Amino acid sequence: MKRRIVTLSFLLASFFAGPALAGDPAALYADNCASCHGEQRFGAIGPALIPESLGRIDAKVLAATIANGRVQTQMPAFGDKLSADDIAALAAYVSTPLGFEPVWGEAEIAASAVKNTEYQSVDKPVFSADPMNLFVVVETGDHHATILDGDRFEPIMRFPTRFALHGGPKFSSDGRYVYFMSRDGWITKYDIWALKVVAEVRGGINSRNIALSKDGKHIALANYLPHSLVILSADDLSVEKIFEAKDAAGNSSRVSAVYQARPRDSFVVALKDVPELWEIATDPNAPPVYPGKVHSYEKGMVEALPSSQGLFAQRRILLSEPLDDFFFTPNYANLIGSSRKGGNGIVVNLNVGREIASVDLPGFPHLGSGISWMWNGRRVMATPNLKEAKISIIDMETWTIIKTLDTLGPGFFMRSHDGSPYAWTDVFFGPNKDAMHVIDKRTLEIVKTLRPEPGKTAAHVEFDKTGAHALVSIWEDDGAVIVYDAKTLEEIKRIPMRKPSGKYNVWNKINFEDGTSH
User: Fold this and answer.
1) Phi, psi at residue 430, to the nearest 5°?
2) Which of 65, 95, 136, 482 has the smallest number of Cβ neighbours within 10 A?
């Protein structure tokens, strides 16, 4: 296979096609960047050079990459060919929004498809480790992923990924295949048993996340650019359907996320810019969707025309305002989403299709990283807050705040496991970014604060399949995954890695463990 796997090494790499006008960033880009990153900055063999895809890489880092290149990569240094002013102009240019919505439809997606001609299926794993207790570790420092044995905590395989993976990988129900998504919209299908890439396709220009259907047959891709929800076959990554992201009135929106609602056999879709959410059926026998009022649902008495039915039937739920960052009850009857205005969470009942409660959450909760468990016979959830040093604990029956815990700073991730009495939460922002709080789920109190590597960011915990061990990331380029005994809270092993941003246990993911993200 002629691999088109891309890393940050391609950032702004290109060949000189001719002299550019001094100080003209568009001409500089055309001469030095377009052959790798596309004439319109959509990306080609290199990633898209638009702010949505570059994320939080600032102009100084971009300028340094242009000037110095990256060692042991295909990114050359331009510092001896371009002036400091030209380099600064290029960095500013690629940090500027496009100013238009790109076209990326079925033809463009199909044309992007890459199959690994060297891939051969296998009948069983080519390794001896328990395939249900593997971790997939995403290393954003150099854009690689590691398959980690969850019993011995030894790497099995490390391989390059697309630039800037985002949104968390998704696993087939048997744990054999994992699907990655990059900010550039690339979806990679990887056979864990064979330790090989199967195929890739680019489903968008700038994407947020993917979800896999209950039966494992369909992948949904949420796109910012273009404004679309793309449904692909999980088998061969071919296009099955594309939804233009518009509300009932025709207003266009970015798609901020898509979720698998397993008990409902559907996808639930969050729209960034319009007051709607969607439910897309993944059941071929899904009932009709009636957009208006229905006289009676008794047989023969409906007296209404369905807008859709069966596979990919689309249901719209109207909201009072756009919602984002969903967290679901275990039966997926209710979800809570963050208000764009901040300050509260809105609860939506998916069965009746309307808002039913509001929860006062002034710290701007990161609900998508929340967790839930049973406490005193009741289902509760806990969420970190992005703007306040607090953990909010919510009763999921009454939708009221039970308790608020003060922390050493705003957090980003929370994790736990049914087999552990503890919930772990990071302090991702601020001077205490090296701290990790451990909360007793029985007493709702912080019982220990760890500092795995003083002065370095500690983030994103994931448990092994039994809950006996908790893995913490040192979120630095010279970082590590640190393995803790989840009972004694003592460190037992440290595995060097390049900015391990996320770790995903196969068993926990395919079984929708309460303590992990879904």
Assistant:
1) 100, -175
2) 95
Q: Return the structure tokens found at 248.
A: 């009932």
Q: Are strands 414-415 and 422-426 parallel, antiparallel or unpaired?
A: antiparallel
Q: What is the strand order of the sheet 334-339 is part of?
A: 323-328, 334-339, 343-349, 354-361
d(CA 262, CA 259): 9
Question: Taking CA 277 as the corner, what is the angle to CA 276 and CA 282, rounded to the nearest 5 degrees?
Answer: 145
**Phi/psi-derived region of residue 50, left when phi > 0, alpha when psi is between -120 and 50, beta in every other case:** beta
pTM equals 0.87
Tokens of 259: 């979720």
- What is the DSSP secondary structure assignment for residue 289, as one 8-state letter? B
Q: Please count the other Cβ atoms lying within 10 Å of the Cβ belonging to residue 409.
A: 18
Do the Cβ atoms of 207 and 182 come closer than 8 Å? yes
pLDDT in tens, the chain (518 residues): 443 433 434 443 433 334 444 568 888 888 888 777 777 787 766 777 888 777 667 778 888 888 888 654 567 788 888 888 888 888 888 888 877 778 899 999 999 999 999 999 999 999 999 999 999 999 999 999 999 999 999 999 999 999 889 989 999 999 999 999 999 999 999 999 999 999 999 999 999 999 999 999 999 999 999 999 999 999 999 999 999 999 999 999 999 999 999 999 999 999 999 999 999 999 999 999 988 665 455 555 555 678 899 999 999 999 999 998 999 999 999 999 998 777 889 999 999 999 999 999 988 899 999 999 999 999 999 999 999 999 999 999 999 999 999 999 999 999 999 999 999 999 999 999 999 999 999 999 999 999 999 999 999 999 999 999 999 999 999 999 999 999 999 999 999 999 999 999 999 999 998 888 77
Task: Tell which residue, 39, 40, 32, has the closest CA to residue 11.
Answer: 32
